[in-house]
Design goal:
This protein is an alpha+beta fold and 712 residues long. It has helices at residues 2-6, 9-80, 88-98, 157-165, 209-217, 250-256, 260-270, 315-340, 348-375, 388-406, 585-607, 615-643, 652-674, 679-682, 687-709, and strands spanning 104-109, 122-127, 133-137, 168-169, 173-175, 180-193, 196-208, 226-230, 236-238, 275-280, 287-294, 301-307, 382-385, 411-426, 429-441, 450-451, 455-470, 473-485, 497-506, 513-517, 542-555, 570-582. It folds into five domains: 2-47 and 314-375; 67-207, PAS domain (Beta-Lactamase), CATH 3.30.450; 212-311, Beta-Lactamase; 382-582, Neurotransmitter-gated ion-channel ligand-binding domain (Acetylcholine Binding Protein, Chain: A), CATH 2.70.170; 586-709. The protein is elongated and about 135 Å long.
Length: 712
């Protein structure tokens, strides 16, 4: 049979060439499809992100259009005479009561317009720090003096700007009465004198930058996206970093972080352009998109920063597509090698060359799959918190949903974790020792404390070690030593990883509380720097790669009997996770190396010269196989005992294959002794089995690798 297919070398060559062409076309098509699909998905993600930015700008524009309309209506009624000057106090109070979001409303008259006996007159209703409204009647200083470029210039641009230029938003300023930074819209109103329209004063309406920040933070910008707003001069009106608001321009900030691109994009957006950039965000350290949008009806610009990872294609699908391309390329390479060595002529050297090539390509593919699987691995369903910006963005989005669903915003309780010791007592649990602390508002009467839903076992330490009041907060520190149930999966051993997760829940189940990472208590929060983990923590054979807080949206199918939880269908559960990766060198030396040595010894036995028909060969083979089986079985048993595996782990596939190989070589020896004329053993002294040994073994390992890491 072996000779029959070798009688037609030209036909085999044609088949190989045809397969090469087909696979070449398929490879090109797969690569083109992959790139096209990536581009399409990227474009869809980009369009979605861009739409979010556009909608955000329109949301802000709509909000401030309503604010502008209030001042415009008052101005119109003053101009037409529908609002007599004697009724302005009542009108101002009506407006602020109807629109509690505004922080102040004022009518300021030109000299002697309100009353010929009064040079200056103003009525100003503003919101106090306590949230009530107060009234300021009369001018507290001479606002009629126009501003100049001099250092001691009167601070009257808020009045003369609208008076001279028409309706406009002024730059932010600190209001001494309200004790807050405000932005203000001004619009003039007029009077008719001798059929001539003359400016009679200015109507101004205030909006606090704190409310502006809340408005921007509440925009739908993904889990960790954020926005910022800048005025025509570049002054930052809203930003997730409060210290920047009203104190710096975007140009100063861009210079401080050495980002000329941000300054240029801001300048273009203020000029009316829509600008898009790809960058690594300075605040989050993540690859992001920056969208700069002009805000209609104002001269402002909105910047939206969105984390590209939130819009990335599915990692599992990406892994499968890349692996498929690799497999097709590998088969094409193998066929090319077969043609190069002229396999179709059936020469012994060519056959061995193809056998070796298949084995080497298989090994390369296995290693490549290991690499790609590690590259595209990552937890799903969790939202990592790696910066204060990401935290504020996520919490504000959740608080908006909570306000709608529950009618109230949750109480934020900053919570910190510091782990000093980690131990794995068994494959499904972890013991951790360290500190957990929380900060509660002093005036809050909610029960203090937290729960650890994964806690198992009776022996545990949960001891309060410190309590003090810091300003308006109560700080409580606990020392913990607990064993927590985990969901470790050793299927990929020795390439498995363990995410040591500490789940934290409020002790007060009946209260609307959300635990938040106390990021201010950590010097650095970059996951790679292991925040919240003692530098001396070490676990044998494990490398602590990163640590981070995260949120998981947990769905509860029970109210726990508490009517207060009826609307709490999804709660953000705070988690502190330490990602640990197993060191593979130890398992390779302890378990992989003996397996590979056993495989080489089996191959050495196979290529050794045997006498067909000699019964002693069968006895020798059985003795050899029994000895190797004992060695393999001992190593296999040690492996399972070492990791306390329940199912079949990846590295065990090698041992299963070795068992099968031992049986196969025994059968081959039996055929060699009992049926020496059989074609499979007669052709060139058992050459077929020798040629297939490594390709079959490595090919089977490749299939198991693909099943475990890619297609499983």
């Amino acid at each position: 049979m072996m000779r029959s297919w070798l009688r037609w070398p030209r036909l085999l060559a044609v088949i190989l060439v045809t397969l090469a062409v087909i696979l070449g076309v398929l490879l090109v098509a797969l690569i083109a499809h992959y790139n096209s699909q990536r581009d399409q998905l990227l474009q869809q993600a980009f369009s979605s992100a861009q739409t979010q930015a556009f909608d955000a700008a329109r949301t802000i524009s709509s909000t401030f259009a309503d604010v502008m309309a209030i001042a415009s209506d008052v101005s119109f009624d003053l101009t037409t005479g529908d609002l007599p000057y004697a009724d302005i106090t009542e009108r101002l109070y009506d407006e602020v009561e109807a629109h509690p979001d505004i922080d102040g409303l004022a009518i300021t008259f030109q000299p002697f317009v309100y009353d010929p006996a009064e040079p200056l007159y103003q009525e100003y209703i503003y919101k106090t720090p306590e949230g009530t409204f107060d009234t300021l009647i009369g001018a507290s200083y001479d606002y009629s003096q126009p501003p100049t470029d001099a250092p001691d210039s009167p601070q009257t641009a808020w009045y003369h700007g609208p008076l001279n230029n028409g309706p406009m938003w002024n730059e932010p300023f600190f209001a001494t009465g309200a004790q807050k930074v405000l932005i203000e819209f001004g619009i003039p109103f007029y009077q008719e004198i001798d059929d001539e329209r003359i400016a009679a004063g200015v109507v101004t309406i205030d909006y606090s930058v704190a409310d502006m920040r809340d408005l921007v933070a509440g925009l739908n910008l993904g889990a960790t996206g954020y926005g910022f707003v800048i005025s025509p001069s570049g002054t930052i009106l809203a930003h997730p970093v409060p210290d920047l608001v009203a104190t710096q321009t975007i140009f100063d900030y861009a210079e401080s972080i050495d980002n000329e691109t941000l300054a240029d994009a801001s300048q273009r957006a203020l000029a009316g352009e829509q600008v898009t950039l790809e960058l690594v965000d300075n605040l989050t350290g993540e690859a992001s998109w920056l969208f700069m949008e002009p805000v209609p009806m104002t001269d402002w610009a909105l910047g939206v920063v969105l984390n590209r990872a939130e819009y990335a294609p599915d990692s599992k699908q990406t892994l499968r597509e890349q692996t498929t391309i690799l497999l097709v390329a590998a088969v094409l390479l193998l066929i090319a090698i077969s043609l190069l060595v002229r396999l179709h002529r059936g020469r012994r050297r060519a056959l061995w060359a193809v056998s070796v090539a298949f084995s080497l390509i298989g090994i390369v593919l296995i290693v490549a799959v290991w690499y790609l699987a590690d590259l595209w691995s990552g937890p799903s369903g969790v939202i990592k918190i790696t910066s204060q910006t990401a935290l504020d963005s996520y919490l504000t989005n959740y608080e908006e949903r909570s306000q709608i669903a529950n009618g109230e915003r949750p109480l934020r309780v900053p919570t910190g974790v510091f782990v000093q010791a980690v131990q794995f007592p068994d494959p499904m649990s972890v013991t951790v020792n360290g500190y957990i602390w929380q900060r509660y508002p002093v005036d809050s009467d909610v029960p203090r404390g937290f729960s650890l839903p994964q806690r198992i076992g009776e022996e545990a330490t949960l001891e309060e070690v410190h309590r003090e009041v810091q300003d308006d907060e109560e700080l409580i520190i606990w020392y913990i030593g607990v064993t927590l149930r985990q969901l470790f999966d050793p299927q990929r051993y020795p390439f498995d990883s363990r995410d040591v997760t500490i789940r934290l829940m409020p002790m007060a189940l009946a209260e609307n509380i959300v635990l938040t990472p106390d990021l201010e208590s950590y010097a650095l929060v970059s996951p790679g720097l292991l925040p919240g983990l003692d530098i001396d923590v070490g676990v044998n054979n494990w490398n602590m790669e990163n640590s981070a807080f995260s949120y998981a949206e947990v769905t509860y199918n029970s109210t726990l009997g508490l009517s207060q939880r009826a609307n709490y269908t999804q709660l953000p559960e705070l988690r502190f996770t330490i990602a640990a990766q197993r060191y593979v060198i130890g398992p390779f030396i302890a378990y992989l190396l003996p397996g590979m040595v056993a495989a080489m010894m089996l191959f050495a036995f196979l290529v050794n010269e045997h006498d067909p028909g000699e019964k002693a060969e069968l006895s020798e083979a059985l003795n050899y196989a029994a000895a190797l089986f004992f060695v393999i079985a001992v190593a296999h048993t040690a492996l399972r005992d070492g990791i306390a595996a329940v199912g079949l782990t990846y590295l065990e596939h090698l041992y299963i294959l070795l068992y099968i190989t031992i049986i196969a070589i025994g059968l081959n020896t039996y055929v060699l002794v009992k049926q020496p004329k059989a074609w499979i053993v007669q052709y060139q002294n058992n050459l077929i089995v020798k040629l297939l040994f490594w390709p079959m073994l490595i090919g089977a390992l490749l299939v198991s690798t693909l099943a475990v890491f890619v297609y499983g």
